[in-house]
Amino acid sequence: MGHTRLGNIPTGKKWKAVVAALASSGEPDTVTFGIFSEDVELVAQTTLEAAKTGLNRALDDEGLKYTFFVLTQLALASRETDWKVRLSQVGIDIPDETSPFALSAEIHKSIDDYLLSHGYSTDISEIAQQAAGEALTSLTAEEARSLFGTGERELQAAVRRLSTSRGFSDLGQRFFGRFMARFLNFYLSRATATHVGGNKFQSTSDISKFNSLLERHCEQTARIVRDFCGEWYSKTEYREGIDLDNTSRFMAVAVKKLQSELERQRKKV
User: Fold this and answer.
1) What is the C-alpha to C-alpha distance for residues 265 and 52, in angstroms, rounded to an integer?
2) Which residues, listed in sequence order, are joined to residue 6 by a DSSP beta bridge?
3) How far apart are CA 117 and CA 136, in angstroms?
4) Can you give the three-state secondary structure of the chain, one letter per residue?
5) Which of 59-68, 75-84, 118-127, 186-195 shows the lowest per-residue confidence on average (mean pLDDT)?
6) Pairwise CA distance, residues 226 & 115, whole Å
7) Whole-prediction pTM value?
8) What is the pLDDT of residue 43?
9) Mean pLDDT, residues 63-92
10) Strand pairing partners for 31?
11) pLDDT per residue as tens digits for the range 244-267
């Protein structure tokens, strides 16, 4: 350990390029890491295989299913004149002076309360909650701002943009992209620890660069469920209304699509 370096972040989004960001670039003044270039393929393969298998647990995770259900209810509520009424049904309270970050906190609270009475929190449900908050704030924060700050009406208008089939496709891809980034990072850390003794970032700048690359890769990976999210959301709401049961069935298919994509990537490493 101590002889490998973080060079320039690759512009490509292939998984092997993400892992290669942890390996030696041969350039001076770069930061030390704990993975050698010859280990890149092994770590890349091991991570994808472990993550694909790990997603089996996500198929039945109550927190993951309920988190996505809450996102559907948020999008649908934004269409209504008084969206607070519908949101109150899933335990979300919107104050008059609010923001995307405050809404994210309310979503976390809503999911935590649900899990307390219907099960228990898992690492997958925690990742899902974080992914939902990040996806929502990243897609609404800019639009929710006005000359007078952020209020309830500005926030509702920003969320309403996500309530169409196309808008929900954006939200679904961003959610699953952030979910997969955190999920893969967990297994990547375990793979590097197992095969090369672990890796340590030396600065917050290094962490930011690597996470940015990982997020870009995973958002591209999540394109496989992008159209599926929007089409399912639109058709299901029109035909029968979205509830937790049909959201759970949707999630099972979405997770299997992600597993298939990880397998495809693993074969290309």
Assistant:
1) 11
2) 31
3) 25
4) CCCEEECCCCCCCCHHHHHHCCCCCCCCCCEEECCCHHHHHHHHHHHHHHHHHHHHHHCCCHHHHHHHHHHHHHHHHCCCCCHHHHHHCCCCCCCCCCCHHHHHHHHHHHHHHHHHHHCCCCHHHHHHHHHHHHHHHHHHHHHHCECCECCHHHHHHHHHCCCCHHHHHHHHHHHHHHHHHHHHHHHHHHHHHHHHCCCCCCCHHHHHHHHHHHHHHHHHHCHHHHHHHHHHHHHHHHHCCCCHHHHHHHHHHHHHHHHHHHHHHHHHC
5) 186-195
6) 27
7) 0.82
8) 67
9) 94
10) 6
11) 999 999 999 999 999 888 888 877
Say how far apart CA 73 and CA 163 lie, in whole Å. 9
**CA–centroid distance for 157 within its chain:** 23
Q: List, in order, residues 6 or more apart from 61 with CB less than 8 Å away.
A: 122, 124, 125, 128
- Beta-strand relationship, 31-33 and 4-6: antiparallel
Residue 33: strand pairing partners = 4
Which tokens in the block code for residue 16? 């092997």
The pLDDT value given to residue 201 = 47
Tell me the CA distances in angstroms from 79 to 71, 74, 83, 165, 235, one per residue in order.
13, 9, 7, 13, 16
Please give the Cα distance from 54 to 43 (Å, whole number). 16
Q: Tally the C-alpha atoms within 13 A of residue 155's C-alpha that lie toward its C-beta.
A: 22
pLDDT band for position 159 (50/70/90)? very high
CA distance 15 to 207: 17
* One-letter amino acid for residue 58 of the chain: A
- CA angle, corner 102, sides to 100 and 105, nearest 5? 110
Query: What local confidence, expressed as pLDDT, does residue 49 receive?
Result: 79
74 has a pLDDT exceeding 80: yes
Distance CA 22, CA 183 (A): 18
